[in-house]
Specification:
65% of the residues lie in helices and 0% in strands. It is an all-alpha fold and 173 residues long.
Length: 173
């Protein structure tokens, strides 16, 4: 059975839903650590910040598929990417449009945290450069820097950023 372009199953495949744990788990771990340390959490801000980082990763995943396809890296029968471009399930333009919408919604979700904690601006700048530069721009992943970028962005950048967003501090540092 071939999924239609509006099929939720197809879009879950396109966004690579299982990979979203790369951003979700560090955010959850940071929330748990801050709570164990007795920090006062801003629950709605934390929820929106968590949703924001998930949306940014969705954007990165989708643009990565488009860029890999443009570079001839992901081809039918090869591992890598979601495969929705290679099997013709979705056109590159659709992935790019949804990616940019995810980035915009992610930014909107992060706005309450940024207004609450202006120090987040530096973290947001690093995250935005990393999201853009992973497979676009300098194409970090094509220069053997992709894994390092993911570790830094989903590790210290995300945890410090989420702690600032949810708790207004990251004093374990």
């Amino acid at each position: 059975m071939h999924a239609t372009a509006s099929s939720p199953a197809l879009w879950l495949r396109a966004i690579r839903a299982p990979s979203l744990t790369a951003t979700l788990m560090p955010a959850v771990a940071t929330a748990l650590l801050g709570t164990l340390l007795g920090w006062a959490i801003a629950p709605l801000t934390a929820l929106f910040a968590g949703l924001g980082v998930l949306l940014v990763q969705i954007g990165v995943n989708l643009l990565n598929d488009v860029e890999d396809d443009n570079r001839g890296i992901d081809r039918p029968g090869r591992l890598g990417g979601s495969g929705v471009l290679q099997d013709g399930s979705l056109p590159p333009r659709a992935l790019a449009q949804v990616a940019w919408a995810a980035f915009a919604l992610g930014a909107l979700c992060g706005l309450p945290a940024l207004l609450r904690e202006p120090a987040l601006l530096g973290v947001v700048a690093i995250a935005a450069l990393g999201a853009w530069g992973y497979s676009s721009g300098p194409g970090l992943k094509y220069r053997a820097l992709g894994d390092l970028a993911v570790v830094l962005l989903c590790g210290p950048v995300l945890t410090v950023g989420f702690a600032l967003a949810a708790f207004g501090q990251a004093s374990w540092l």
